[in-house]
Structure prediction request, 358 residues.
Amino acid sequence: MKILLLILCLSVSSQAAANNAISILFVNPSIEGEPFWAKVQAVMEVAAKQYNVNLDVIYGEGNRYLQLAELKKYLQYRATPDYVVLLNYPGGAEQSMSLLEKFNVKFITLEQTITGEERAAISGPQAQFKFWLGEIYHDNYTAGFMLAKALIEKATAKALTPHVVAINGHYGTESDARSDGLKAYLQQHDLSLSQTVYAGWSKPEAMEKTKKLLKRYPDTNIIWSASDLMALGSYTAVKDKNAHPYLIGGFDWLRDNLNLIKQNKITASVGGHYMMGGWALTTLVDYHNGHPFWQNNTKVEFELGVITQDNIHQYDYLIDIADWTFLDFKQLSLFRTKQANYVFDVSQLRKDNSQNEN
Prediction:
């Protein structure tokens, strides 16, 4: 009888713990299955399981109007989550955050996608929007600089005189910050940029624009791209031109790009930011447990990593990875570890990192 009562008590307490789990809504800004954001979501799901968080996901479909509509529908017809993690689309930030304020939902934003007048209008976290706890982002300018450095250094190692073109995503926000980093590196090294074109983050468009650029600038041997998907478009445009060397690089650490780096067909990819969802979730669990980080801070900034033909052996296991459970997010928690500051570093993904030894 005592054993039966003990089992019943454990069952009730377990159910109560499940009912009291933190609920977090992730607003995936893209479509379901899109390579980069699917990885962000997969990593976030691992962190949620480790922290016993109820994680729900909706999709913005790559459009600020659709994302706002989906968020509005969720808040109107579903149980209100404890917290929301989202990426703001330019032109839609104020509406999305006003909606979250209306429903008294505290939230964290990913990436610094809002600039200029719109950024001035929304101010920063914990200012105009009191429920905006903070933002987690990387420096796109530095990342663009890093990619340029990797490409130019490889050209130097091959005794090539750099002739550079750039494939950008769209006008404004993160893509221009990335290309500003490229321009800064070239300026520092007294190198010129033949032209920048915009391909709207599209592989087919990048392919067509690369073909046009090569006709206009036949000496081109470096193609800097603001995304791996567009880098794939450039690679498709040049892969049959065996007589001419092309050094191509992008952002996001996509599977196909890492494979091509391993095959010495693409030069570099900057990335690791698919970890940011799991990191955001970690900070929210800490906040929910009373840690004062988001009371005393409004941002977490982290650096991206560069995978090249020279260090791909440290990251090649990521190419076909399906199981992210080797990541121990609890080691990153300030509430659990009593560390002073978050250490969010993509180098944690290297093979020689102790986290990956098992």
